[in-house]
Amino acid sequence: MRTHFKMRVILAVLCAVCLAGAGNAALQTLDSADILSNSEPTLTNAATVAFSSDGAHTITVQFGPGSGPMSGTVLATIGVDEGVIGSLFFSNYIQEAVNTIQFGVTGDGYQPAGATLQLLASNGHVWYSKFPVSSTVGERLEVLLPLTLESGWVPNFSCDDLHGALAADLQNIIRVAIMLKPGTPEGMSTSPEQSYTIDNVVLVNDDGISSPPAVLAENDLEQALLSRYGYGYGTIESLTATMKQYDTDGDGMVDYIEIWAENDPDFADTIFRIDALELVGGNPKVKWVCVNGEQYTLKRAGAPNGPYVAVNASPLAASGTGFMSNSDTGAGNSGPVFYRVVKEKQ
Fold it and tell me: Quick check: is 289 in a domain?
């Protein structure tokens, strides 16, 4: 499971060791918050969301029947080139002379309640643009969305110079996503089963030249949250305060943080934590829980609040799921020193 906001999950355990004297290193953990009762939310109109793909550049969203007027938060998000190194979709659009985003969309005759393209800039600004879907069964529409305010882009903020803000934000786009909501036809109380296919998402520059088609994939974080919390709770922001306290396996790390950290909330041993800290040959050795293929950075500081600097020159890749460790040969002879582990997002 991945989500690609260039996020990093910081281990919620602080380890300290005093290097001035010999002996065993002291492991200090932060107290976990009180966990509330793990009662399931009451859910209604629980329509399902599924994804299928005919290839890397085509993806279909399938909504099961059942969503009703109270279920407006049902959402399917398609990630565009998420995790693709060097993707032109995450770049300076002004410098690359990109002026349009183009893709195809095919429906099965129903109109979605929402069909939106989203751009996220590095400063947190989000821009949305609606796009049409044909009401004819199986008809493919070629959607062209020029990157101008006149084309219908709407921000999640307000300012006096939206033209200038859009131009500035287009210089550092860090996420592109297509979002769809199931529609309920007039005269129906709940939505019928329906599907929408997106294909060949490309960027077009001032010379009319298109980029290679983007890799399209479901948003894994969204689907994991929906699976755990149910219909309507596919984002961190949509979770209630009570939901954020659920700790299914009772390991002290709440479910949504475990999901965010790509761990298994049903298996206590997968909690992201520092497992041991010891002195080996005079050097601190830190051991932590890891997941196969993930990358981690060990960081050191002279005080609990930092600043923290990386111990290893580049992230360490886990060769298996379980535990991994790293010795800090550059800690010196003074102390105490503090460590934390950062799980890198690839």
Answer: yes
